[in-house]
Amino acid sequence: MNIFKNFRKASIGIALICIVGAGCSKNFLNEINPSNRTTDTYYNDATGYESLVTSCYPLLRDIAQQRILSYGGTDVFAQAGWGGIYFNQPNQLGSQYDQYDIRLNASLGDLQTLWDFLYREINRCNAAVVRAPGVIGMTDSLKTVRVAEAKFLRSLCYFWAVQQWGDIPMPLVETTTASLEVVKTPAKDVYTQIIKDLTECVAKLPAKQIQVGRGTQGAAKFLLARVYLTRGWNFNNSLGGTPADFTSSLQLCDQIIASGLYPLEANWNNLWPLHNTNPNKETATAASSVAVANASKEIIFAVQYANASSYNGDPSVGTSTIGNDMHGRFGGGPSGVAQQARTSAYNRVNGGVNTTWAAYRLFDPVMDVRYAGTFNSVCYATTAGTVSLATNKPYPQAITLTYAAGDTTGIANPWNAPATTAAQRGVDIPGGTKKYSVINTNEYQGLGYISVGNGIVDNLAWGQPMFWKFFQPGILYGDGYSTFNDPLFRSAEVYLMAAEAIVKGGTGAVLGTADVYYNKILDRALGAANAGKSPMRATNPEKVDDPITNIVSYRATPATISIDMILDESARELLGEGNQRWYDLKRTGTLLTRAAKYNPWIAYGLTGTPLIAAKHLLRPIPQGMLDNSNPRISQNPGY
Questions:
Q1: From CA 407, how far away is CA 65, in angstroms rounded?
Q2: Are the beta carbons of 576 and 326 closer than 8 angstroms?
Q3: Rounded distance between C-alpha atoms, residue 229 and residue 249, angstroms
Q4: Which residues pair with 303 in a beta bridge?
Q5: Alpha-carbon distance 233 to 591, whole Å?
Q6: Nearest-angstrom CA–CA distance, 291 and 160
Q7: How confident is the model at residue 583, as a pLDDT?
């Protein structure tokens, strides 16, 4: 059943909330409401109230697609291409989210947008909570569930907001009139309220919902476990956390695992849209490609996109559709030669963030199925075409390559299997023999295998592997919107949260020591043939010219399990998911160290001087909020 079927009615009702006294002259405009429907008359019965609660869910799409504040400036993602730094190109300027310079300030539109979306959702949830007692024609039991859903969604938004900004406004009642008065609530009190609400949600939400996509007891337990885990770290001693929070988080994780409702998929690839590595051999349709992933029991809570009648996202509709954009937001498009024409074969990539070198080198590309499942390292021509190398610089060649659909046009070698001789390279390189480009990991985004200088032109080159994990075949190129449901919570993360809680002192673990929880996720990624073996990653993932023999196992033991090891595993397992990476690094107190170590832009800072500092563990309050508050609320320190 579609939880968004009453969304249009709800949108009309919510819009009425925003219409306040306009001060218009009666001679100029006489307003008439022919239906005599207002929010007070529409939301007071079962039908209207159902539409109000239902309308709280689609706003998660807007929030979840604000990814730059969750990924930019972390260890595994950078907003801008980073090759120029490594190849000593002059005057490098990246994103403020990566360089953490003076441009990272209150005026940024991304900050304002996320703030506005979060508080829009909070107000809508507040309306559902406050109006519930006056609703007639609805059973008390159903009303209790719907209120719990609203509190669950409100808690999620407050949790995102308090991590980003610290002390924040915390209205708990519906705002129906304009006001300039804004009062910040201390972060520890926000956490207290979130925990209070989520504890109530755990008690009142059902284990399963008839309507797909609604909040459940399992989703509330997951979020509460993450909240306890975060509070336990007690950022700046400001959250009211204690060591007992780690045990509380661990207990909830064990309860989710023991419930049996969210079993791990046997095959990690079944969590994502199915697609052929060669699009010319694709047999899946847009709908069939996501059928298995969207039905996975491992998913505890997801932002819904699959039902075409619940949003304008049917792939056959056209360019006006609205849907999931995950498949095109993580950089690394196909080889330009591969897609001779703009088609849906590889679809459109508008990469908002790019994977860092370190992220590739955290994987064992041979043993760990997640590497090939995340990155597409081979590209194929989708139409016939030719490429001339006559204008290449600094090595022009009188060569014209002819491709048929299905021909290989580019290979991006994994870090542990580089091309080591000229004969293994493409003909764009002196001595190369392949009619396609071949690049090594230390050359991604840089064309460094040709020259360190400026003015490089290579008509055969490919910058880096395509981020392939969320790709859905069969959607229109100009549309680019996917019907893959965005998984915010899944049970693999439950095991990793439990491992983290144990490392931090949580007691009473059901399955054993922290490494047991960790290795449960690792062994699924290795598959039955390699379970129990030791996959190898680069010892220094950030040092792309390290010898490929400098490697270390990432199988955990009771002696080796650590927070950094868990963060490495969460990067491999959850790369690009849940808008979570910045929050993970902040929670664990590793943002300043891991980001500066693994993200080239952060290490570079301003002409070689890193600028990331403790103040960046909180974002600046958006300028619009400062300007529209009276008395003016205080800005976060350092901005």
A1: 35
A2: yes
A3: 6
A4: 486
A5: 13
A6: 30
A7: 98
